[in-house]
Amino acid sequence: MRSLRDFRNGKPSFYPDQTIYAEFASAEFGLVFQEASAGTGLVFNVASPAKRIWFGAGRCSWFPQNNATASSLATDKYFANTILQHAGIPTLGGEYFFLHDRHRAHRAKGHERSDAVDYFRTLRGAAFVKPLTGSRGDFAQAIHDEAALIAYLDEVLRYHDSVLMQPVFSGWEYRIFLLDDDVVYSARKQEPAVVGDGVRSIRDLLAEHDAALRERGVSVAALTTDHGDPDAVPAKGERWAIPGRMNLSAGGTMVLEAPSAERAAFALARQARRALGLRVAAVDLFTDIGGDPEAIRLIEVNANPSIRFLEQCDRPDLILKIWQHTFSAMGLAVV
Description:
Layout: H1 4-8, H2 17-28, E1 32-35, E2 43-47, E3 52-56, H3 68-75, H4 77-86, E4 95-98, H5 113-122, E5 127-131, E6 141-143, H6 146-156, E7 162-166, E8 172-179, E9 182-190, E10 193-195, H7 202-215, E11 239-241, E12 253-256, H8 262-276, E13 280-287, E14 297-302, H9 308-312, H10 316-329
Antiparallel strand pairs: 1-2, 2-3, 4-7, 5-6, 5-7, 8-9, 8-13, 9-12, 10-11, 13-14
Helix pairs in contact: 2-10, 5-6
């Protein structure tokens, strides 16, 4: 068997991960892979002797076994929360707010930008805010005063139409990846960080970190004096954690690990998947909220999750397991 590295070698840096994994899995399962977009990897197909299935990278759904309705409901964080709450699943709650006047005649009162400030006050001046249909941790951050909220909304409206505002919770954050009710893996998320060189300040190290985020289309890290002196110079090798979001796209990391309340967390993840009607789901949740190992709340459910983490931790077997599920669900006979 050729290694996953063989399929990545020679590919340009912009080449989609999912396209590489599809080619890798096709070779393993005796299927025919064809890249069809002038070497960009954006459009490809996989075929058996009897059937051909087309895939798209970028914003396309990578998991066609998730139907369009289920994927759309999961993508909208308010829709998803509403469905999960009706299923009796503890979520982070929150309210949605529009940032533009466009289409105002088509929506109920109480969800305009001016209402966002009023709601923020009910949360006692602390909230976690993120785009309603955002991904990759883009503009997902904690806000701790009204001036910061207004500045945040001014920035976000350039890229997004709406946001979800939620109370701030803290605990251990986990991702549980499901194929139907089978837990493929469980991983604990960790904050992104910069590493000191003994010369540059935290501010300068973050500038370099933020430049890389901009190139990937992800918002920069939110830094306030609440997190320490940004002009301090960390010692060489000293790790300075960037508080807030833990998404891999924003520089976070994950380690394969089961939650302490494993049975309860896995049961909650399965319940959430079923409630939304997904077959592939990455369920993000907090455990140990307030130090209570039994306190669990669901953060969100991702219907189109990246699986690059599995390549990073050298688990091509799990990548193959996920693609075998996809191929089989779409009627491609695998060897």
